[in-house]
Description:
It comes from Enterococcus saigonensis. This protein is of the alpha+beta class. Helix content is about 35%, strand content about 30%. The protein has helices spanning about 85-110, 135-150, 160-165, 225-245, 255-280, 300-315, 345-355, 375-385; strands at about 10-20, 25-30, 50, 55-60, 65-70, 80-85, 115-120, 125-130, 155, 180-185, 190, 205-215, 220-225, 285-290, 290-295, 320-325, 330-335, 360, 365-370. The strands form 4 sheets. A 6-stranded antiparallel beta barrel has the order 1-2-5-4-3-6. It has a 6-stranded mixed β-sheet with strand order 14-15-16-17-19-18, with helices on both faces. The chain has a 4-stranded antiparallel β-sheet with strand order 7-8-13-12. Helix 1 packs across helix 2 (about 135-150). The protein is elongated, with a radius of gyration of 31 Å.
Amino acid sequence: MEKYALDSYLTEIETTITKRGKDETGNFVCLKETIIYPGGGGQPADSAWIENNAILKVQKTNEGIRYYLGIEVEELPDSVSVKIDWDKRFDLMQQHTGQHILARVCEDLFQVRITKEQITVTDSFFEIDDQLNALQLKTAITRSNEIIRQHKNISILFPTEEELAKETLFTTPPKYFDNLRLIKISDFDIIGCGGTHVNNTAEVQALALTQVKEHKKGTTLHFACGNRLLHQFETNQKQLAALTLQTKVPVDALALAFQEQEQTIKYYQTQVALYQVNELVSNAKELSTHFVYSEITDTEPKTLQTAALQLADIYPEALICTATSDEDNLRYHLYQKKADTRHQVGQLIRLVNQELAGRGGGSPTKGDGNIPYLQKDTFLRYLQQ
Length: 385
């Protein structure tokens, strides 16, 4: 019997082991009664213990729920104590009920459709099939917190088909089936759900958006509620205090200060790249009549490509190779202004891959690859042929 489906607040019970076994996952037991939510519907499983042994995994099967333990399950008594991690359970209850509230508010205010929802131990979110502007998002959060403060009772229902037909709060009424479980928030919302919830909206405490991501199919709303929201606030405040102390910049000016710092970093990165391009060009060596090589330590692919283009203007008939190295690898860029039917760049790189355990590819005129650095001399001799 799944007691968590009737009462989310049960934290410990005594029950009986109905089966012991071992499969490819490990040693498991099945229980006559359980308070452990096994996961599903976008909510993770509880963390729990059987006789003080941590449950490693919970798995639903046709014969029941299997609880995997890191011990020999034959050592357990027939009657066992089961205890859940209440802090984790209550956190997920707050997030799950908060998700129901915010989702229904968005549906009512903006006629959106919920397309996906997920609650984890670190993040909670759901997706809608439309995009909302800043004012709409603010309105949704304000309304959600009003619902929370209204102390609306939350009930678990297992309706008959006749009782289901009388409920009028559905956005989309579910089809009836045996053991259909509904979560009803007073006069505000009702929806089919198998997860764990608080008994009153006030227990959600508060709700806030933590991130908003727009995409082609709509918007993903990330949020936090209750104790998790308070913890995130406290953590963020400590981080802000540390940043203001280190930077000597007030909180309301931090964003601008970091933007200016980012622009400064980009400027110097550009100057370094220009210097490296000039170094590659000035230090280039014509190793044979139609092959030019230049190497520098620790640079970006774009720098290699820019230098190769400049070298091609100086040596228009040559195959250009610019490269950068570290302890183990040589990363290179090949370029030639005109495709050589005998030595197309992409074909050369494929041959290098085969002969020297390299990786990469390209077109007839340009391409990128890398080889073990120990193969450098062989690589250069190969390209000079």
